[in-house]
Amino acid sequence: MKKITRLIIGITVIIALAGCGASREGEKKDITLGATVPYSDMLEKGVKPYLEKKGYKVEVKEFNDYVQPNISLKSGSLDANLFQHKVYMDAFSKENNMKLSSVVTVPTAPIGIYSNKFKSLEEIKPGSTVALANDPTNLARGLTVLRDNGLIEIDDKANPLRVSEKDVTKNPKKLKFQPVEAAQTPRTLESVDLAAVNGNFAISSGLNLEDAIVKDKLPEEIINRIVVLEEDKNSKLAKDLKAAVESEEFKKVINSEFEQFHKPEWMNKKTAAK
Asked: 233 falls in which pLDDT band (50, 70, 90)?
């Protein structure tokens, strides 16, 4: 009888400990968030203080590429990241057999057309060379900026998120396109006439967003977002991250530090409602 009693007590203790472990995991307070520049600053200034008031201990880890933040999320060394839009997230998920989930969209730096030679669209000369990011999404964004400002025309049947040089139907100035790695576009300004530069790479290289000749208009699919593994989309952390971005403190940081960024639709609606 004593053996049975000890066995029951032992099983009870194991179950209780297992329950405590699940509880601790559900209430995880030491977290690591990953981001590229300048979104690492956005997390540091606009999200981290809010989370720390909620009792979290937050580390923000900075990345300089678009691959490792998701790989680190999958390995568990990150709890969430901020650097990608929905189109990239969905493509990465499919190609790498991952299940990623968007938590909330944030203000996003636009792609801009920069030049060390020209100050306006009217100054652009025939035959000018234009550096464009060579990944499909940002290539499409760069070409769309040129299209929206009357420099080229694009086939109406082309997928707007997958436009390439092959879809250009009219190029009156005979612009020459030079695809390069997105991170290298700022450096090409010494050797090309124009460059379509992602906002984050423009900022990290010292360019001023206000110096762009023109900027793109971002659809919701291209707005950057905080991302977690799909299994964590309903976690307490995911809910607290969303609350942090929707807070007045975050809004103040955006208005003072990231005023040139394109705001997501939900943020514009929230502002208009007040």
From this structure: very high
How far apart, in Å, are the Cα atoms of 228 and each of 21, 80, 134, 139, 158? 21, 5, 26, 26, 31
Q: Are 104 and 152 in contact (CB under 8 A)?
A: no
Q: What single letter denotes the amino acid at residue 87?
A: V
Give me the chain's average pLDDT, please: 89
Could you read off the pLDDT of 67-102 as tens digits, one per residue?
999 999 999 999 999 999 998 999 899 999 999 999
Amino acid at 58: V
Cis before 38? omega within 30? yes
Q: Which contiguous run of DSSP H or E holds residue 35?
A: strand 30-36
Tell me 127's DSSP state. T
Instruction: Spell out where the chain has E strands.
Output: 30-36, 57-63, 80-85, 100-105, 112-114, 129-133, 153-154, 168-170, 176-180, 194-197, 214-215, 224-229
Rounded-to-integer distance, Cα 228 and Cα 242, Å? 11
Count of beta carbons in the 10 Å neighbourhood of residue 207: 19
In whole angstroms, what is the distance from residue 202 CA to residue 185 CA? Answer: 8
Neighbours of 257 (CB within 10 A): 15
